[in-house]
């Protein structure tokens, strides 16, 4: 094997390893079907930016077809009843509806938004907090092999327990990008989504086809950090589920949680080590491989395996040296907003929320 072939194989392997370790960020743009001019700017963005289409919007079918032709992932953005008292859009799902009524509305939506592979809720704090209502939704979705993306407009959403036994898989939104039209706020929310993807391995952010949101995405997507990769929501379905996102089997109670093992004091480092990102790791290893081969070409003897300088023995001390229709703008979160004061898994990072979900 030539040096060039060997080096190429090593770099390819390292790049594949880095991609596997990258934080996965899914971005979904809701409320498609009302503003074709702005929405076309979204469709000019990377194909892994997914869209959610309102079934009764005037341009719903056309936008779904165009996005499909690009190879883009499409969701049905289905109106669901909010807790706030406001006019409901046509074909809004409510907790009082029968299973047949829910199934009929979802069937109509599937005809209006072709090529959809998932469904998420438009508003919906009243509907998603109703277990019986969401059980009707999940039963209907199971006929189409749709996944459900919970927009998490309320913290006590029943989507996960309602999906138990139906085969419907549930994803959860972690960040709303544009609770305001202020570009600085949107940029901060985008950075928060990136940080969550890096910390947890994946994150889902939802935005809307507002001019300010489009401008921020156009600015920030080209400079996405090297350890973050854009993905479609469906690519996260096979990720290891976070606590609170996997439905327990029917008939089996959830196991009691054991107290966390705290360890002994002298085993705990007082400061977390600095993060090592995949791009830096690839660069360091590739540089080391290249230097080794240059030494071989100069006739130098490579270091012998097994002879390592282990340094001075560990003294046992911790190392502390490391420092209504036609009004898609109604898709704002409810006043019954999720509590994002805690970083616990399963509580989405809602950012700033307003009335309307």
Automatic annotation (TrEMBL):
InterPro entries: Divergent_DAC, Glyco_hydro/deAcase_b/a-brl. Gene3D superfamilies: Glycoside hydrolase/deacetylase. Residues 1-22 form the signal peptide. Pfam families: Polysacc_deac_2 (PF04748). The keyword Ribonucleoprotein does not apply. This is Divergent polysaccharide deacetylase family protein. Keywords: Signal. Residues 297-357 are annotated as: Disordered. One of its GO terms (biological process) is carbohydrate metabolic process. Residues 309-318 have a biased composition (Basic and acidic residues). The keyword Signal applies. CDD domains: CE4_DAC2.
């Amino acid at each position: 094997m030539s040096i060039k072939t060997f080096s190429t194989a090593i770099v390819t392997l390292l790049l594949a390893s880095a991609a596997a370790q990258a934080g996965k960020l899914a971005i979904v743009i809701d409320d498609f079907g009302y503003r074709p001019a702005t929405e076309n700017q979204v469709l000019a963005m990377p194909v892994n930016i997914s869209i959610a289409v309102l079934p009764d919007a005037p341009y719903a079918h056309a936008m779904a077809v165009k996005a499909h032709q690009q190879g883009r992932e499409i969701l049905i953005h289905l109106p669901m009843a909010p807790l706030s008292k406001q006019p409901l859009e046509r074909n809004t799902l409510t907790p009082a509806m029968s299973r047949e009524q829910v199934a009929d509305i979802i069937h109509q939506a599937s005809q209006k938004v072709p090529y959809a592979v998932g469904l998420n809720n438009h508003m919906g704090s009243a509907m998603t907090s109703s277990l019986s209502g969401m059980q009707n939704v999940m039963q209907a979705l199971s006929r189409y092999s749709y996944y459900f993306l919970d927009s998490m407009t309320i913290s006590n959403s029943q989507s996960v327990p309602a999906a138990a036994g139906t085969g419907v898989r549930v994803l959860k939104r972690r960040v709303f990008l544009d609770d305001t039209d202020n570009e600085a706020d949107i940029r901060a929310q985008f950075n928060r989504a990136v940080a969550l993807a890096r910390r947890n391995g994946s994150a889902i952010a939802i935005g809307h086809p507002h001019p300010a949101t489009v401008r921020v995405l156009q600015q920030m997507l080209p400079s996405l950090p090297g350890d973050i990769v854009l993905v479609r929501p469906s690519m996260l379905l096979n990720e290891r589920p976070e606590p609170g996102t996997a439905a327990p089997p029917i008939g089996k109670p959830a196991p009691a949680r054991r107290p966390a093992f705290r360890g002994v004091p002298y085993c705990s480092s007082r400061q977390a080590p600095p993060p090592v990102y995949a791009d830096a790791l690839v660069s360091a290893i590739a540089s080391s491989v290249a230097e080794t081969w240059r030494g071989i070409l100069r006739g130098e003897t490579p270091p012998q395996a097994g002879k390592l300088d282990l340094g001075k023995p560990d003294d046992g001390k911790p190392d502390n040296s490391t420092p209504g229709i036609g009004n898609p703008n109604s898709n704002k979160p409810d006043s019954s907003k999720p509590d994002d004061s805690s970083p616990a898994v399963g509580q989405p990072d809602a950012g700033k929320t307003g009335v309307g979900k």
